[in-house]
Amino acid sequence: MQVPNESTINARGLWLLEQDGRSPWRARWSFLGLPPRYLFCHDPANLGSVDVCSECLSILPWMVEPDRLASTLSAFAYRDPIDETLKALNYRGDRYAVRLFGAPQAAAARDRPRPDVLIPVPLRPGRVCSRGFNQPPLIAKHVGAKLCCPESSREISRTRATPSQTTLHAAERRHNVEGAFIVCAEFRTHIESLGLRRVALIDDIFTTDASLDAAREALLEVSVVDVQRWAVAKAMPTKSTMPT
Question: Beta-strand (E) ranges in the chain?
């Protein structure tokens, strides 16, 4: 994995600091007014409402920025400490991590053409019930607040409750979610009047991209021209512990 140079990381940090003052107060003090909690150290914060200091931000496993017109984007590699922090969000409901992940994901997308809407990839209903919350919409909310871009969970839904992807190989994952997403009738009917031509699908982890690809195909079928696939972290081939 290539490592972003220091100037790129500093640019992301400065962008986050600038955007923090422009974000609505609801975005800065979300989740019942929880103040920033610095997840990786106890040093003073200097990035506003982002729950990490600039020094820690510089040593996180950032992904090198792809071409600004590439259809995929992830802020981090799925490595320490990002992997454990994502698990804390997904399985222990640590919602502080949402702000940590949402803001750098927005920073990684700062120079890209702005999507007309951010659409979180819907979870299986059973998984939402077991976790008590749905993390992609929460991440999308914070990405959208930083990018001044609307987010909506109503445009796409699952057609069936697919089995968990965690124990499946790549080909099995793709088969598992094939045709599993559908664009809602209202969105399909009014896509022309809504003027939505560029959307970004939001998820927490790229593994095989199977779910994001299946959701993307559903949107392309209703004439959305540009469907970006964004995820907070990308599982790397050399990583021995894959996301669960």
Answer: 72-77, 117-120, 156-158, 181-183, 198-206, 226-234
Provide the token pair at 27: 């975005």
Confidence tier at 32 by pLDDT (50, 70, 90): very low
Residue linked to tokens 């940590």: 100
Sheet of strand 226-234: strand arrangement: 72-77, 226-234, 198-206, 117-120
d(CA 23, CA 27): 6
Which carries the bigger pLDDT value, residue 40 or residue 163? 40
Q: What stretches of 36-149 show up as alpha helix (H) in DSSP? A: 54-59, 82-92, 96-108, 125-131, 135-147
Cβ-in-10-Å burial (0-12, 13-18, 19+) of 155 comes to buried
Residue-range domain boundaries for the chain: 6-234
Structure tokens at 23: 């974000």
From CA 189, how far away is CA 151, in angstroms rounded?
Answer: 19
Quote the pLDDT of residue 119.
93
pLDDT at 181 exceeding the cut of 90? no
Mean pLDDT, range 120-127, rounded to an integer? 73
State which of 40-54, 128-142, 219-233 shows the largest mean pLDDT: 219-233
